[in-house]
Amino acid sequence: MREFVLDGDARHGPDVLAAMAGGVTLDGGLAWANGGRSQASRRSWLDTFDWRLYRAGLTLEQAACRDRTDLILTGRDGETMAEQQLTPATAPRWPCLVSELPPGPIRELVEPVAGVRALCPVVRATSKVTELRALNDDAKTVARLAVDRMAVTFPARAAPPVRLMLSPVRGYAGITDRIGGAISGVPGIVAARGSALETVLAAAGLHAGDLPGKAAAVPLSPSIPAAQGLAAILTALLDAVEANVPGTRRDIDSEFLHDLRIAVRRTRSALKLCGRVLPAGLTREYRAEFRWLGDLTTPTRDLDVYLLDFGRMTAGLIAAAPADLTPFHDYLVRSRAAQHRRLVAGLRSARFARLTLSWRAALEEIRPARKRPTLAQLAADRLSAAQRKALRAGQLISPGSPPESLHELRKRCKELRYLIEMFGSLYDPGQRWQAVRELKALQDCLGSFQDAEVQLTEIRAFARQLLADRSVPAETLLAMGEIAAGLAVAQRDARREFDGRFADFASEASQDRLAELTRIAGPAGGAGR
Amino acid sequence: MKIFATYNIKGGVGKTVTAVNLGYLAARDGHRVLLWDLDPQGAASYLFRIKPRVKGGGKALIRGTKSVDSAIKGTDFDGLDLLPADFTYRNLDLLLDSAKQPARRLAALLAPLKADYDAVFLDCPPSISLLSESVLHAADLLLVPLIPTTLSVRTLDQLTEFVSGFNGHRPDVLAFFSMIDRRKRLHTQIAADLPAQRPDFAATAIPALSLIEQMAVKRAPVSAFSPRSLAARQYSQLWQEARDRAGLTA
After folding, report:
1. ipTM of the predicted structure?
2. Residue A169 in contact with partner chain B when CB distance is under 8 A
3. Domain residues for A440?
4. Which pLDDT tens digit goes with each residue over A55-88?
5. Are A33 and A133 in contact (CB under 8 A)?
6. Are residues A26 and A161 part of one domain?
7. I need a surface site. Which of A147, A343, B81, B162 has the fewest CB within 10 A?
């Protein structure tokens, strides 16, 4: 299929039929004929908040016309991969998790890509398709041209250019190529540069693949004053916090809260490690406020982690039956619902509104009086200090060290990683990836150790609570004991793995690669840019 | 993939119009349908406005030097494709004779299309030949149009007996009365009595209607250009019987 668009606004552009009749000369006895009644439909394109389908080359669309509704999945080449008719009983209420889609090939293909993220309508449009048929001298249809006039209705009203889709009839590809050549020669008609989704998004002023909720690296010049660069980084982190608030409040999926927490943690780390370049008093005030925000989100997230991991935990049971854990699962769901209500109340509070509003205003008002230190100098200084601290914290760990010392090292490693990502635009992406390779492996190991530590503490508290409530049978507590044993084994394995991971991180080669980042971003590297 | 074949030793009994209308109705039901116009006269190809020509002719198809898939043309109707006739099909008997296992050759040629089509209609030329034997071996359901006369019923019995002698796969047979002239008492009497007495007869009969003859002028299935007509309704009923008999699920 070849696709074209009419150059210009859909409402005032040239009439397609007139353009065809006047502009496209079909040789070889071909003629255009009207293909029959036009078809109106409502189209909704669906994706996760962070465009996982789009980034994987998939497009998921729900098309509803008068008498039927279909879900259509297309691949990178625009070819339909799966199509499924929806009934009132099976039609999902968007947003919804992939596990809530009706069973079938679409769910099977989308599930590994979307993961725990919900599918939400990213753009909606009405569409009116009329068809023209190219006829040969036997009045046989040899090609079809669908003329699609769309109007975007969500998230903003817009009129995208008219799309023309030329499809061959089987066995007549050569003639269709000739017709395609003739159409592309008509003034005002150009080859479509993107998919229908990209066309409607562009009309609505959006771009597929934008990641408003991710705390991504901000492109920055190394020579700008440090305070100016830090303000830009903190503003981007505030954008990420705010972008994830509606999804967290509506509880669309657990990743909104996860991403919100990442943006808060990075803000807190940035204030702690680099806050001295900001105006006096600002850092102290907002460190306390962001600590409050972080603490507000922790109970819900901890329960999310438990629930997300629940299937894996029950699959690992040996003596107990998975059904024994049902009362525990119900307890987690109830607790999570209660914690989420508290979280929503916090996100609706005047304190939260004040925090985001005043923090944005404060960041906008930052006008550095001095050019030095530059952002590159700040990055080099902080990175080198964080690298030293992480190395020292790890070297202090011996086989008899308590779990707290590993947690301490984990925090230092996180700070180092945040700094590298925060100042990410100052480094070559390949070099950055090489530099964090061993650090990332060490963080994974420390993460497994600490997660098991937290979950062990929590499951003991849950068991005490359930026992006090006298609401569960003995089988549930026994099964929870099995889970606790599994967590202890996972923690022991992570502890055994630790020495090797830290040795890799502490190796000369790894430390040199990290130090190299400091040199690139430092005064000499920065001046050279 | 279910294979239907419209077959009768006699010509002019309504084989082609049956294949064309039932193929159209199957596609309208949402099935992916291929109609193979095996008759060198190319009447089905003409009705779909497709030139009766296959590159390399019947020889290339039977010998496998050209794939069946590459010769297929799309009709004007969604889900309905046509493998056109070619004048060289008049020699298909000779070509089959020189092929290995000639009686199974058509089934072997269609086998690679299983993933692409739900239903295949074979529109056969009127004859008893190696080609018709190959068609009978390939088909799941033989649709046999009969003019209501005593002699045509005898022909059906001979066909049924011939098919029952096959080893392995045997097609089911569904005969139906076609071109019933309501002015002839014998036609109406036989058409009224026989279907109730024999399980291999469809309850639906197709009357002789000028609208069916109009197909050659309109060059389209009657169900497409006159969907509410008696002819269209009868073909629709016949399709339901054939579909159920062949076990083709909606």
Report:
1. 0.85
2. yes
3. 226-528
4. 999 999 999 998 899 999 999 888 899 999 999 8
5. yes
6. yes
7. B162
